[in-house]
Amino acid sequence: MTSILLKLLKPFKANVIILFSLILLTAFFESFGLALLLPLVENILQENSTTPLTGIINSVFDFLRIEKTLTSIGILFITIIILKNLFKILSTFFNTKIVFNIRKYWILKINNNYMYCPYGNIIKEKQGVLVNNLVFETQKAATGILKINEFLISVSMVISYIALMFLADPKVALISFSIFGLLFIIFSFLGKNKLAEFGRKELSLNQRTNAVASENISAMRQVRTFSIEEKINNVLNDYLKKLTSISIKYEFIKSIPRAFVEVLIFTIIISIIIFFQKDDSNMLQSFIPVLSVFILTSQRLLGQFNILISSKYSFDFYRPTFQLIDSIINQTDTIISKRIGKNGKDIHNIDSDIVFEDVSFFYEKGNNVINNVNINIIKGEITAIYGPSGSGKSTIADLILGLYKPKKGSIYVNGDNLSNFNLSSWRKRIGFISQDNYLFHDSILENIKVGKPGATMDEVIDSAKKAQAYYFIENLLNGFETEVGDRGLLLSGGQKQRIAIARAMVRDPDLLIFDEATSALDNDTENKLMDIIFDLSKNKTVVIITHKIEIVKKADNIFKIENGLIQEIKNRQLFSDESSYEL
Question: What is the pLDDT, as a whole number, of residue 579?
Fold first, then answer.
């Protein structure tokens, strides 16, 4: 656990050192301020003690050349309190700064993991789990870091209080140190495994709760259509009940040490007072200044002990979260260092055919989706790839986009292996339109500019006109500033596809890929969009993936894929009878 925390804090080493120095200074002035209560009380009661603490305080006054009067003691006491609170405020500032910077660092690291990890891995995870790890677990871990700082502060304070007690009365201090030390070890040991178990359960439940909530919101239409609101609420309620139960148990366990120690420490204090009162009442009178310091220090020590145990329990509770974040960050570092095409060559134009040589691919070993594919996607021509659902058509598109690497064989562009190019620069040369184009909950303008973030308004308008989207956009109340809703739900299917085409065209791509781009549309809208697609395809390399014969007929080159095997169709007379190809 300690090694994980040190690794997570390593990027913030300088700030941590500054914070720790401030904590030590705060602890020093806190204990020194308490120590000044001894001469203060002695001065009021006109009593003098002969403890080592008295000697040290007298040395301080001698060094400062200040007479030890009630006024001078009071002024020094107030000065010390001001300094202590000044360092405490600075500690809080650095503490907060470190925690928020750490959380920001973790979120960006985890987000990079999602952005650059193998595409096949990320799509297997539930969206809610990914969001939970990115947002909520980093928040929990940041809270855990706060607890680390509280722990360090408490350790410093406890050490300073025990030292103060030793100077006031070594025997009583030794007893107190032994009791607090033993109790800390006992309570730490007793709660360790149970709290880690609670932490693991809470992490799992948080992930499942967020997954359910995310799916419910995304599938709101289906939830209402099938009238399963009650079922969904029951599932969510079940998870929340379990989370509530864990939280209650966690807080209950945290409260036990304070109650136990408070009873114990005041029992000791009362016993000391009774002992001195019975033994010698005059001795009790002379012991009051030291006892005052001891009681106040004990009270402070009790508070710090409670924070110490609470912080330790928080470490144990948040341990699974720290381990999760550490694991993801380690994966991120590995992914970034090995990312495909990270340091590859930039590609500025696609100047050749796209050639598949003996390409095979599988999602699960032993179950190939495509086998030994050899095709030429000819530059400047329209290539259609068709076949039944699940035949591997979209896998071809994913391989071209570089979302997956071939398990066998190679893809060549401009006479070089695709894997040798920088994937980001390669994808900028491609316009991709799919069946279900994701529109962000933003304006039409910003959704089109996703294709080219730096696009001018003239470029946006030009791409909208090419996609025949300009006129319907202009007729909207807010024009290009119209919000499209979550995933574009405020627009019709045809409008969404036109915006998707405009988004692809704004980057002026060399290659256009249409992956079942019209399959979800009615015939009239589909025909209009296909006219747009073929009009835009002039002088560009185009790949159309479809299962519709009428679309295939218009292509320059046709490939049929079935059972992972692909063949070129050269005899167009075969299409006279559409039933010849049951798609």
Answer: 43
Closest CA to 116 of 344, 399, 340, 330: 340
Q: How far is CA 508 from CA 305, 381, 433, 459, 529, in A?
A: 66, 16, 14, 10, 18
d(CA 453, CA 450): 5
**C-alpha angle with apex 187: 181 to 189, nearest 5 degrees?**
100
Q: Is 5 exposed, middle or buried (0-12, 13-18, 19+ CB in 10 A)?
A: middle
Distance CA 76, CA 39 (A): 11
DSSP state at residue 352 = S
By three-state DSSP, how is residue 254 classified? helix
Averaged pLDDT of the chain: 79
Domains delineated in the chain: 2-191+258-328 (1.20.1560.10), 354-580 (3.40.50.300)
Cα within 13 Å of Cα(431), Cβ side: 30
Instruction: Tell me whether strands 541-546 and 511-515 are parallel, antiparallel or unpaired.
Output: parallel
Do residues 94 and 22 make contact, with C-beta atoms less than 8 angstroms apart?
yes
Is 345 in contact with 27 (CB distance < 8 Å)?
no
70 closest CA partner among 43, 37, 36: 43
Q: Which DSSP category does 133 fall into?
A: I
Flag whether pLDDT at 42 surpasses 60.
no
Phi-psi region of 430 (alpha: psi -120 to 50; beta: other; left: phi over 0): beta
Strand order in the sheet with 382-386: 430-434, 511-515, 541-546, 382-386, 557-562, 565-568
CA distance between the termini of the chain: 57
Q: Where are the beta strands (DSSP E) in 399-510?
A: 408-413, 416-417, 430-434
In angstroms, rounded to a whole number, what is the distance separating the alpha carbons of residues 510 and 537?
Answer: 10
Laid out side by side, the sheet with 354-364 consists of 367-377, 354-364, 408-413, 416-417
Q: Within 13 Å and on the Cβ side, how many CA atoms surround 140?
A: 24
Rounded to 5 degrees, what angle do the CA atoms 60, 66, 68 make? 80
Nearest to 37 by CA among 45, 172, 303: 45
Say whether pLDDT at 46 is over 60: no
Residue 51's pLDDT band (cuts 50, 70, 90): low
More confident residue, 458 or 19: 458
Nearest to 149 by CA among 92, 102, 107, 78: 92
Pairwise CA distance, residues 89 & 81, whole Å: 12
Residues 56, 167 contacting (CB under 8 angstroms): yes
pLDDT higher than 50, residue 264: yes
Exposed/middle/buried for 326, CB within 10 Å: 0-12, 13-18, 19+?
A: middle
441, 483 in Cβ contact below 8 A?
yes
Interval 325-354 mean pLDDT: 77
